[in-house]
Amino acid sequence: MIELKGRKLVLGVTGGVAAYKAAELVRLLGKAGADVHVVLTEGGARFVTAVTFQALSGNRVWTDLWDPRMDNNMAHIDLTRDADAILIAPASADVMAKLTHGLADDLLTTLCLARDCPLLVAPAMNRQMWEHPATQRNVAQLRADGVTLFGPAAGEQACGEVGLGRMLEPEELCEAVIGFFQPRLLAGRRVVMTAGPTFEAIDPVRGITNSSSGKMAYGLARACAQAGAEVVLVSGPVALPVPAGAHRVSVRSALEMHEAVFAALPGADVFIGVAAVADYRPATSAEHKIKKSGAELSITLTPNPDILADVAGLPNPPFCVGFAAESRNLDEYAEGKRKAKKLPLIVGNLVQDGLGGDDNLVVLYDAAGRHPLPKATKPDLARAIVAHLAGLLPQV
Ligand code: C5P
Q1: Which residues pair with 249 in a beta bridge?
Q2: For a surface tag, which of 21, 130, 213, 314 has the fewest beta carbons within 10 Å of its beta carbon?
Q3: Within this chain, do residues 281 and 162 fall inside the same structural domain, yes or no?
Q4: What is the pLDDT of residues 136-149, one digit of tens each?
């Protein structure tokens, strides 16, 4: 996944124990395609050495405003000249106070003052330092100055205390940076989605299920959240982490999914049915494990409700998006489903290589016709689907 390809980031690392996490952050940002240039403050260099960051970023590390390696001796201008953002992680209470007042007494703060790009700050400090009125004043001022804050999170701290002030984990910060660069196409919209398979119990230990990795749905939830939407992900059993900014409601059966969807629906602008809902469930589920007898056993199946069709059939439905995974005749079947379920948009994909892969080939069908998307990874496809659906939403 090269979602930060072509992005130049200046990463400021200040003096805090969370500086050790900045090393992993450099690795993750680099893996996502970013060109990372680390600027260490004097305090930061007491926790992690420049050698670590140089090895991980593949770039020189800067610490000194007067570094003679910079040809024109203007490190404070040159380093951010073509940068897409400065990220400070960890950002100490001290650096935040300096930024608030426009102090420029070292390389990092001078870079921030002389920059022509967004400033992203991931605070990391003791709970009491974070709660101090002086820090809170600085936070409010930084926000008013257009600085973006990531975190802090609550939890256990290095000092042994528990509370707000922990730096976000490197994975969360990398996700936040990726999200920062996405267009806010769904800002202010509420999106409800279904994901994964459903599991229909036969008895307490057995059931009928569909094959679904949930990757497409979770990727779409992530893309919607990164586009600024409030996302509710009603999910059947899958082993995937909840994307940042999405709220998961875990369910098992189709009936539970139906109920959870309708509970989440009020105020929704968009409903996306991605789940591979089991079409049938056992008419009865045995209270105890069915014993093996050697004789034939029949299970009577009864149809499950069609969640998507029920939502789309509401008097004032949200904008409904369906998925159609077909093994042949994609155009005919997908468009047929779109019309039958009264959907403004359906995402069709031809299942040739089985389900659960990382790449996908999809075609979008709407009232204007058929729109094939180029073969891409699921995250890229998810973004393309979000862009298409955002363009079809009624303006608010
Ligand atoms: O009719 P079919 O199952 O092929 O339609 C697939 C679409 O309908 C998907 O978007 C799926 O999430 C949704 N669906 C549903 N409830 C069902 C069956 C399918 O929401 N019971």
Answers
A1: 234
A2: 314
A3: no
A4: 999 999 999 999 99
159 has catalytic annotation:
yes
Answer whether residue 47 is part of any domain: yes
pLDDT of amino acid 163: 85
User: Which residue range forms the structural domain that includes residue 233?
Assistant: 190-392
Answer yes or no: is the C-beta of 378 below 6 A from any ligand 1 atom: no
Residues 6+ apart with CB under 8 A from 68: none
Q: Does ligand 1 lie within 6 Å of residue 224's CB atom?
A: no
Query: What is the H or E stretch that residue 283 is in?
Result: none
Cβ neighbours around 29 below 10 Å, total:
25
* Among 55, 57, 61, 63, residue whose Cα is nearest residue 15: 63
Look at the chain and report how many structural domains it folds into. 2
Report, as an integer, the average pLDDT of 57-86: 82
- The CATH number that applies at residue 219 is 3.40.50.10300
Q: Global pTM?
A: 0.89
User: For residue 338, what pLDDT band results from cuts at 50, 70 and 90?
Assistant: very high
201 in the same domain as 90: no
